[in-house]
Specification:
This protein is an alpha/beta fold and 352 residues long. It contains twelve helices and twelve strands. The N terminus is likely disordered. Bound molecules: S-adenosylmethionine (SAM). The site of S-adenosylmethionine has 23 residues, from helix 4, helix 5 and strand 6.
Length: 352
């Protein structure tokens, strides 16, 4: 049973107790790789659990009509994500693309660590992995004035914004290509760069081996990735506030947080052929909104948050939104809503 299972058990219990009014809830390990959750329900509040169970491919059986509903929920965990993966090519990417300048401003404190660490030289050829709307690719292109920068990403909407911004800036040595950085063979580069774009691979060793292959002798790797969920106040605040009223799926240990563990990071990079691996603990306050109102409005536009709220229904959604607004208001400062973050700044060299 993976750690995601424990999150899901805790989450399921919390939701049952808080929302369902259930008389009994028992959770047992039925057999290896599956948990069984049995809930005697008074008829309220199980919609979220029911829907998530369906999403996870869970089997559910209802008891005969008459008595309280008995849901039998089998959750096959191993290797399965417990929330939907981010849809970069679809609605999630489109939201990001529509708010690119806001994300650039939000992440600027990380960019200020990444760029100096990447130590871009005038004739460098740079590959920016998971470039999104391409701010770091453009910064790399400016630094590599006699070289070039290529941004690669899965997301059509984000790349469209990236191309538009590069054209507006008149940058002729910057280009963007759509592709999966895990498998696409790239031209030889001197630097592989990434701001939060390398945590989403299905097979990280395959991906970093592919990126390593693109590096010239003496080539460098520089990226930032998130540390653990608990160290990123924005994630914690949002989750705590919303989950008082709506079902918020457990934080995923895959996806954005997949490189939170330094040992795993080192293992993956070493297996892919990198050496001189250095991790720097980057703790930066991030401005998540100019006011509590702005921070709340931004979250409400996020497709994932919208999904949680819609699923919970209008009354619970309204209460959850108010809880979020209050939580942000408690953190408002003259500089905006400022929340702590934790990232790893990672640099490495391509060993032959
Ligand atoms: C958190 S966003 C960061 C975007 C950008 N680097 C920034 O700092 O604004 C992660 C990006 O990684 C991209 N991505 C995820 N998996 C990818 C893959 N296998 N190949 C290329 N891009 C990928 C996503 O499409 C998304 O744009």
């Amino acid at each position: 049973m993976g750690s995601a299972a424990y999150f899901l058990v805790a989450e399921a219990l919390t939701n049952i107790v808080k929302h369902s009014g259930a008389e009994h809830a028992t959770i047992t390990l039925a057999r290896a790789g599956a948990l069984v959750i049995e809930v005697e329900d008074e008829g309220t509040g199980l919609a979220g659990i029911r829907r998530r169970a369906a999403f996870d491919g869970t089997t559910m059986l209802s008891s005969p009509a008459g008595g309280p509903t008995l849901l039998r929920v089998e959750l096959p965990y191993e290797g399965k994500p417990v929330t939907r993966p981010t849809n970069w090519g679809g609605q999630d990417g489109a939201f990001w693309a529509a708010n690119d300048l806001r994300y650039d401003a939000l992440l600027a404190p990380l960019t200020r660590h990444l760029l100096p660490a990447a130590d871009i030289r005038p004739d460098d050829r740079v590959l920016d992995v998971g470039c999104g709307c391409g701010n770091t690719t453009r910064l790399a292109g400016r630094a590599a004035r006699d070289g070039w920068a290529l941004g690669v990403d899965l997301s059509g909407p984000m790349l469209a914004t990236a191309r538009q911004r590069a054209a507006e800036a008149g940058l002729t040595n910057v280009r963007y290509e759509r592709g999966d950085a895990q498998r696409t063979p790239f031209d030889t580069v001197d630097l592989v760069l990434s701001q939060l774009g390398v945590m989403f691979f299905d097979d990280p060793v395959e991906a970093f081996t592919n990126l390593h292959r693109s590096l010239a002798p003496g080539g460098r790797l520089a990226f930032v990735c998130w540390q653990a969920f608990e160290l990123n106040e924005g994630r914690v605040l949002r989750r705590e506030a919303l989950s008082r009223y709506v079902t918020v799926p457990p934080p995923r240990v895959t996806g954005a947080l997949s490189f939170a563990e330094p040992a795993r990071l080192r293992e993956v990079l070493t297996a892919a052929g990198f050496g001189d691996i250095e991790l720097t603990d980057v703790r930066e306050p991030l401005v998540v909104g100019s006011t509590a109102e702005a921070a709340t409005a931004f979250d409400l536009g996020d497709p994932t948050v919208r999904e949680w709220l819609t699923e919970a229904g209008p009354a619970a959604a309204a209460r959850a939104t108010e809880a979020l607004r209050e939580a942000y208001a408690a953190r408002e400062t003259p500089d905006g809503v400022v929340l702590g973050s934790a990232a790893w700044l990672v640099t490495a060299a391509a060993h032959i």
